[in-house]
Amino acid sequence: MQKKDIRKLTLDQLITYFKDSGEKAFRAKQVWEWLWQKSAKSFDEMTNLSKVLREKLVADFEIRPISIATEQKSSDGTVKSAFKLFDNELVEGVLIPADDRMTACVSSQVGCSLSCKFCATGYMDRKRNLEPGEIYDQVVAIDAQAKEHFNLPLSNIVFMGMGEPLLNYKNVLEGIDRITAEDGLNMSPKRITVSTAGIAKMIKKLADDEVKFNLALSLHAADDEKRNQIMPINETNTLEALREALMYFYDKTRNKITFEYILFYNFNDTLEDAEKLLKFARQIPSKINIIEYNPISEANFKNTEADRLDAFADYMKKNGVTVNVRRSRGKDIDAACGQLANKNKAA
Q1: What's the mean pLDDT in 43-69?
Q2: CATH classification of 4-62, choosing from 1.10.150.530, 1.10.1040.10, 1.50.10.20, 2.60.40.420?
Q3: For residues 282 and 279, what is the distance between their CA atoms, to the nearest angstrom?
């Protein structure tokens, strides 16, 4: 029989376990600290526990840490990792270095069920949700890479890897809790962004739960007809439904929304498209990240031309919208936005 994953226990459950075992309650806090502050991967590391107690923990529980199956470094410094999970499934995570920040792009699911036409992960099956500990472990691993390669700690986290975070709602929020809690990694939630393809009822739930992190919407088209073509989720979560949900989120949290908008050549890159985006974005306190498209073998989309991108961005800026143009990083190792698909599987 498979042993229970100790990281699925709450602190209260851990305290009960130790009391029932005839141990002092403070032992639970010691173990909790090893798991969530010191990121222990085995019970042997818990050196302030007696050997007998560690053996008891080994008999009753297991820790299911992720490991790095493969690691690739791009010519621009981006580092992509394939993380091996306890059941041998793989997910990918990326370290994106910049002058002023070290950003971890992490996954929330093994595969994805949303089938966005431009995204490599969307052509994979969704196999399962990631556990809070597996989300936490990606951050710990990428932080170690940032320190190893750049001598700097991680500064930001984006949930823009494999999977739809809001379809793994409970585990993603628990993972973020362990990353931000004082008795966890103690990172600021203001430095975390969760990106969604747009699930209106779950955006409202984020608002009701009064989350402190930032929210980004993968928009990519500001009219329903075009968005339906590239993002099937839009058929049941229309732009009007999303607008209403995002306003609800802003009213509750006072956090501005980030709209992500990939420019596809001859699809959504005209000034008419820019006008539609402007009209939509003006309804919600927001900023826009214009993203270069990174071609994938499964789809026929092309990145827009430089002059079209500039004209699109200039139109938005002239009309008073905050716009950032995000240049792609890690293209040469399939680590850029939309390219994560476990192509380099572990042997």
Answers
A1: 96
A2: 1.10.150.530
A3: 5
